[in-house]
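tool=predict chain=A
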Amino acid sequence: MEIPEEKIIRLADYARNRLDPVVESEMSKIVGNDETGRRLAREAARLELVVSAVHAQDSLNAGAALAQVRSRIKSSRRAKRLNFLRTAAAACFVPLLLITGFYVWNTHFRDDVNPITITTSTGVTSQFILPDGSKVWMNSNSSLTYPDKFKKGNRTVSLEGEAYFEVSKDSRRKFVVNASDVQIEVYGTRFNVDAYSNADGKVRTSLYQGSIALKFKDSSGDMRCITVRPGQKYIYDSALGKMSCSESDAPVETSWKEGRILFDSTPLAEVLRMIGNRYNIEFIVKDSSLLRKRYTGCFTNQRLEVVLAHFEKSAGMHFDLDYMGSGDDSSTLNGRQVIVVH
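tool=predict ok
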């Protein structure tokens, strides 16, 4: 909102506490009807001394900002208005200078790097941006550790659980994801990584755009590297040291980003794994014939009991939530609640 010229003059006096109470009340509507606004106005007046010194050294160039103002000022109060506007320009310039200086120092000169860990709880997904501008979506019961700034060299993060990445391109610095026993290298692309350590010990990587490389140890203990193409999904079995390839299914694999669990003729083993990741459940299937069945459907934010009731009704399965096996903590497995499927 443009302020009339006569109010600019009053605002200059307001900053110096020279107004009577009636006019001060009117000007409070401009600077903010609270103590913070009045304090900032008084600070602007005090900054005038700093601006005068800086202006004398020709370090503060307010000429461009004042050019438009000079063309509109024709009265004898010209000097007074310019003085106030110079102060206002300094009030904006000083914080901007501090912010810019901090950014340059933080990005180029600070040597220490501090790790940050983002963790999601059961049934919760999260989206955030890394220091290099890369976007990350994290699924339920997952965590990602990364530095608060990426220095020279690789941009390395560590994942436990599942995450979808949209990596900012940087030809000078590879983006590296350490996920269990697999290292994923990329310069700029979109891909999904499923690496829950408390599940079946497998790392699933699906590429949707760009190119990535997977580094892993084979069954003989030798390091190997595979280049992945868009549309491919690689599954690494840590116990066997084997990597298998299939076609990726982006709508199913990334449905969790929108808070959904989507099945499209999906085998029961995969269905239960996806549900288990969302609700932190470990399913034990007693009837192996059920594993040959496939399911199609979609769940959003339903409670676990609602999801299980659907399968009991539509597929004739029974879920035992009171399973007790052997051991002191027999109702859990890999840190998850156990549910037996009959």
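The two ends are 69 Å apart (CA to CA). The chain has a mean pLDDT of 77.
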